[in-house]
Amino acid sequence: MRLRPQPKAARREKCKKAQPPRKFETHPLYGEIPLVLRTYQDPAGNIHNFYQWDLDYEPPMPRHAVRGDVRKQNLCFSCHAPMFFYLDRHQTCIQCGRDFVFGAAEQKYWYETLGFYGTSVAIRCPECRRKKRNETSLNQQIAVAKFNLKKSPQDPMLLLSLAEAIVLCHMKTGHGKIEEAITAARKAHRIDSNAVEGMFWEGCSHRIAGRVDKARDLLRNFLATAPRSRQQATLMAKATEYLEELGES
User: Minimal CA–CA distance to 29: which of 55, 65, 73, 74?
Assistant: First the structure.
């Protein structure tokens, strides 16, 4: 016995019933985001259905927005909506208190290239971020120099590296053990008379500590004995600048 084919209208109605209902999630920035039905099987073999953001959705972008690539974002999409586009965000720096713009292009770089988690935001302005990076780098230089000096306590290059990092860190942050820098710089020059940078960093340390006469003598001696080379040119220019500040004609 042959079954009679169902009318087209009945077949269409049957297909409609078989398809899951379309769902949307309203987002204040991205509008009506479509949700896609997904399934997964747990270790016990049970099948579960759940809805997930449609990662192919492309909402209309406001002016000056930057399109996001949601598949590159480090974000839990079960807890947070994908960042379909980025807009400039106005922030206040927690360090200096100034207002700054966390730009849309910078956000895309943070979240899609550097891999920062999607809920992290810039809390410092670019200038304070640079200072923070420099401070971190100098603290790392101090730690590395101290670690290596435990193995080679008479290495003049390590002693100079320690003195330099302490002085620069103090200049940038106001923190640093200046007496430790003086000891390291003096010891480096005593071990190796060619390590004339020791006089420069010791002179800088006394300048920071307010010992003007000692700073002048050491900076003068550095200028008088340092070889005229491209390597020493920057330190010699700084020594001249510091002597002028200290009243050297």
Answer: 65
